[in-house]
Write a structure and sequence with these properties.
16 helices, mainly alpha, two-stranded antiparallel ribbon
């Protein structure tokens, strides 16, 4: 078994391993090229997170999905560059909204420079992604536009919060399906589509991407509580401090409001209070890490990953299908 890519898909086939490694290397070259500008400062800011590394989960999914037809089709690598550029752009904007100080183990762009630079750099990356996707044809442009609409809608829904009477956990799942699942679904769809795969395969890989994307974000929810900065490259409790609802917090609230113990209610009061003080944040993290709500959130994440695995059942039995199945486990078990 070989682990391929920064994210880590288990590959047992040497030919597949070589194809995936070559594809990801070409994507890295494409990312550097796409973030170069005639203005040196823009290049420096745009390449800040590219050069910091990352999981490259979305490009990996594009490359693996292309294996069900012509993996070397000319549109595969540009499509992978498009989804990663779009993802990177959202990170610049997210860090401004969250006032995050660290991203991928380096100072966030808004910390290194300022909010204006971070927002404008994100916009620059969106523009470069748009230019590349335009070269992939009208259908690719439409797919990208629809996914971007879903992504932004998910972010707005998160900001607005659930409607009166709406279940907060159902609302959260819809939010992350938009914010995260939409672009990861495009990754599977682009890989299959650009390679010339059968429409049924395109549909299955799109569904897989959506479902594994939800599992991916739920794992992020868990990592915000349970992760360590040295492993994740992101400050633990960032979402918690900003009051962003994550699944462990929602599970705690559900428990506390449904006849939970006095200890549950005290922890919920702490978690939903002012966590700008480092000591209070540390206390909240300690409490959540020891609470069954975190266990339930991990179980929810695993269930979503299993739904993703089920989406692969009708795909041809080629080595790439096994590699995609391994991603379901990697998503759940990751530490970064």
């Amino acid at each position: 078994m070989t682990v391929v890519g920064p994210f880590g898909a288990s590959v047992r086939d040497k030919a597949l391993e070589a194809d995936v490694q070559a594809g990801l290397a070409a994507v890295e070259e494409g990312l550097i090229e796409a973030t170069e500008s005639d203005v040196p400062f823009i290049t420096k800011a745009a390449q800040h997170l590219v050069r910091a590394g990352g999981k490259r989960f979305r490009p990996l999914l594009v490359v693996l999905s292309a294996q069900f037809a012509n993996a070397n089709a000319p549109g595969v690598v540009p499509a992978a560059v498009v989804v990663e550029l779009t993802h990177l752009a959202t990170l610049y904007h997210d860090d401004v909204m969250d006032e995050a100080e660290v991203r991928r183990g380096v100072p966030s762009a808004n910390t290194r420079w300022d909010n204006s630079v971070a927002v404008l750099t994100g916009d620059f990356l969106f523009s470069r992604a748009s230019g590349i996707v335009a070269g992939l044809g009208p259908e690719a442009v439409r797919i990208q536009a629809e996914a971007f609409e879903r992504l932004v809608t998910g972010q707005i829904q998160e900001t607005a919060g659930p409607r009166p009477g709406e279940d907060p956990i159902d609302h959260h799942l819809r939010v992350i399906a938009g914010k995260t699942g939409s672009l990861i679904a495009v990754s599977g769809r682009f890989g299959a589509l650009m390679s010339g795969a059968d429409p049924r395969i395109v549909a299955d890989l799109t569904e897989f991407g959506e479902r594994v994307g939800v599992a991916f974000q739920l794992a992020d929810d868990v990592l915000d509580i349970a992760g360590e900065a040295r492993e994740s490259g992101k400050t633990p409790g960032t979402d918690l401090r900003e009051g962003i609802p994550t699944l462990p917090v929602l599970r705690l609230r559900e428990s506390a409001l449904a006849g939970g113990s006095a200890e549950d209610r005290r922890l919920l009061e702490l978690v939903e209070g002012d966590l700008t003080d480092d000591g209070r944040l540390a206390e909240a993290l300690t409490g959540l890490r020891a609470h069954p709500a975190l266990v339930r959130a991990r179980e929810d994440t695993r269930r979503q990953a299993e739904l993703a695995r089920e989406s692969l059942a009708n795909l041809p039995d080629v080595p790439a299908r096994g590699a995609l199945a391994s991603l379901c486990d990697a998503v759940v078990d990751r530490t970064s």
